[in-house]
Amino acid sequence: MGQVRFKALTEVLNRKPVEIHREENLVSDYFGMLVFNQPKMKKYLSKEAYKAVTDAIENGTTINRKMADQVAQGMKTWAIENGATHYTHWFHPLTDGTAEKHDAFIVHGADGSVIESFSGNLLAQQEPDASSFPSGGIRQTFEARGYTAWDPTSPAFISETTLTIPTIFISYTGEALDYKTPLLRAISAVDKAATAVCQYFDKNVTSVHTNLGWEQEYFLIDEALFIARPDLVLTGRTLMGHAASKDQQLDDHYFSSIPTRANRFMQDVENEAYKLGIPLKTRHNEVAPNQFEFAPIYEEANLANDHNQLIMDIMQKIARRHNFRVLFHEKPFKGINGSGKHNNWSLETNTGVNLFSPGKNPKSNLQFLTFVVNALKAVHDGQDLLRASILTASNTHRLGANEAPPSILSVFLGTEVSNMLDLMEEAVVDRKMTPDEKTALKLNIGRIPEIILDSTDRNRTSPFAFTGNRFEFRAVGSSANNASALIVLNALVANQLQKFQVAVDALIEKNVKKDEAIFQVLKDLIIQSKPIRFNGDGYSEDWVKEAAKRGLTNIKNVPDSLEAYNRPEFKNMFLKLEIFNDSEIHGRVEVEYEKFIMKIQIESRVLADMALNHIVPIAIEYQTMLLENVRNMKEVFTAEEFKEFATNRIDLIKEIGMHISAIKTLRKEMIEARKSANVIIDAVSKAKAYDTLVKPYLEEIREHIDKLELIVDDEKWPLPKYRELLFTR
Ligand code: ADP
Ligand code: MG
Fold this sequence. Notes:
The chain contains 26 helices and 18 strands. It is α+β, with helices and mostly antiparallel strands. Strand 8 and strand 9 (162-171) form a beta hairpin.
């Protein structure tokens, strides 16, 4: 066995269970102990400062410098009492992951001494050396520097010994360089649009916030095996590896008992999460071997997304303690399930009403239907943009594979809500209903809650499913920043709600009664958005054909998909809602193209190296062994016997030779393809060249390597195999 592989497997066999710290207190006793949350603010801030912060959180008011100074003092005192020595602004640049730069609290005191200090200025704003973060050219065009600014709506927390302050990250000219800034803008856009529409139903609604409940899927791989796989280390996925004889065929992993090592890891993660106020609720095995999921109780979307980024970071750190590595890649292993991050999304009013939850009376149910139908229309019209928000180099491997949502956007509503919409569509004839029809409709609308509670139909093949009181966007990738999807989803829904309001108001102007006007507009929307509704099997071949007939798009590659951002209708929408300006859209799309190019480039390089350094030499070694064997046979056997015994051996030698040559030829061709792509200046053309000219080689070369894996002596194979990566725990 290859030495590295042998050592790695030995190490795994000798693993001792890691002892974990078990909290003796109830979770409710220590939940949020490391968060500067409202109770702590109350204790550490003056009444004035406390009010300034809560006003900022609740009403979006700004906090002046004097108040910021007071808040900074309170935060510092609390943080130092809890072991913090440093502070950092923490933000979501347009990379995978978050960014932070720690500074100690110390400043010079008298006589060469130092004292701990932290000011409102430092809390409110900082200027990280930002030149190395992707901006898609925004900083070159405008101003080289960028700065971070405190987001008081997401509370500061202590991470190890650092007071961590969630911030936005923008250029000096105000362009967003991160995910959080446009997310906050999109949340605000939907707030305004939804609040206005709620006025038709309830005058007490003054604000609407977005909720997000994410479900984070991931793989846990033993660290020793991980390190023995340069492809996993450098790209997050296996670029080669033949399927194990057994993987998920028996469905024996999903929801089965959690392996002890994984369970301890999860307990450790939960423990940390609770201290940081992350309400992790659910843990279970996923479908693929060594694949798992964490899900919290849903929270306000901005906070929930911070918590998701934070938990991904915590999981990676804690995994090391347990000699694991976490894989967040959407498709680390060919042929078995990949990982997603379902986004459970809903809108909630300040009066505590979930707008996607059927109400108790016809009026609140009309409100419910209004929001469902508008969401439906938003997804229908924005299908290409939604796809662009989630399709990445890594997520393309997952989408459309037999276990993951297809790259065709569709909405599952369940039979009951679907029937309801059908009924509304038929009921409003000639734009006027008879009193009987109205009564019937109202009766039916009134019955929705019972129906939905009774209804058990669930559809796991839909990329966008209504699940009783929320929509679940299932196409989001496991490694993604949820904001990318949420910005687009909220923008589309805000935009649609605005159009809805304009249409309803126009009818009211013409003396149509309010309810009637709402019905009429909803009917139009129901008809227009019909193609996007699909309750059947999203994995089936028939659906691909049916969707094409309906005119739904099915774009599977990143470069084409990204073009949606620049389509005038979407661009104008972003501008109008003030979520992105022109250069922000341009910059963001540029960054996405760049990321795509880089990811394929890195994979291509890693594969080329491994093919040459890891695989070919071993194949040659084994081939030489066989040749030796044949030569010896010739000495021992008669010509007749030799023919009988050596023929298949010679065939094998030829087969190995064929794969080696193919690998070498394809490798050369791939490098040439890269060279020709690299000279292209324009990012879009370059990304397309990488997609169509370079990327296909990854699969082609892999096939030869995977064939060799089956042939070559297991004793010699240098890389941990799928069965070892996936079944050691
Ligand atoms: P599943 O059956 O799809 O695995 P779960 O019951 O585990 O779903 O819930 C998935 C996520 O949906 C959780 O984070 C949960 O808090 C969240 N969720 C539940 N209700 C809502 C809602 N109204 N809005 C947003 N998220 C919600
Ligand atoms: Mg779910």
